[in-house]
Amino acid sequence: MSWKRKKKKIDKVKHKAIAITCLMFAVVLGLVIFLLFRLIKNNNNYYSIESRTSELEKIKPFKDSNYRAIGWLRVQGTNLDLPIVYSENKYEEFPVELENFVWSRNRDTKFTNYIDITGHNIFNLSANPKIKSDSFSRFEELMAFVYYDFAKDNEYIQLTLDGKEYLYKIFMVGFVDKSDETFFPKNDDVSKDNLKQQLKWLEKDNIYKYNIDVNENDKLIALSTCTRFYGEKQQVSFYVVGRLLRDGEEINHYKVTKSSKYKNIEKILKGDENNEKDNV
Length: 280
Known about the structure:
Blueprint: H1 3-41, H2 53-58, E1 67-75, E2 81-87, E3 102-104, E4 114-119, H3 148-151, E5 156-161, E6 164-177, H4 192-204, E7 208-210, E8 220-227, E9 236-244, E10 256-258, H5 262-270
Parallel strand pairs: 2-3, 4-8
Antiparallel strand pairs: 1-2, 1-5, 3-4, 5-6, 6-9, 7-10, 8-9
């Protein structure tokens, strides 16, 4: 073999080696960039806290009513970004002009270890809830959490109260029998024993498993609304419950899987001719 042919062959091998090296470098660099992106996304940029204090200050007292706006609620992935109203007179009839608001069932307006918020669901009652609709202005979009793909991508509840922003990690989604609700805390200052019992009740109805720790030392927020997911005869409320972000805890994405109860949910979501239609 002549020297020129030998040199040409050597150069060809070198070029091939360089090409393979460059390709491997590009793959490794791409992987590093991807992991860095995921790391950033999974930490403090996963949910961006936006203050609602100024919006809350614009809400004027309602005429001829003891109701007043005391806080603001945001729920990740939904249009739930609205004031929380409260009345010192718990026997006052909820006025029509406030139907598009959500309201506090607590007995006081201060921040406590158990915040209880409820709202109307008028247009999303069926066994096949919609995730979005132009007609939704109350708590209808809360029903989106019945879908696993939605629940695993949306995990935070934000509460504005007393000029502060509180962030909660969702740890429970489920249907609670209305008779069981009588066992839930009624006082604002809930004891640790009562909270421990509350967590047991919630876990019993949880349709998901969230990879976060929750115990009686945590502070909770419970969002609830009406539904006919199981039909008109079975009286249940739909709950989404979160626990307050702990000191030093990051705002990150955490794992959500289906619990054993979700098999029945999936059967109902598939639907049949007996499923109730939305009331519109």
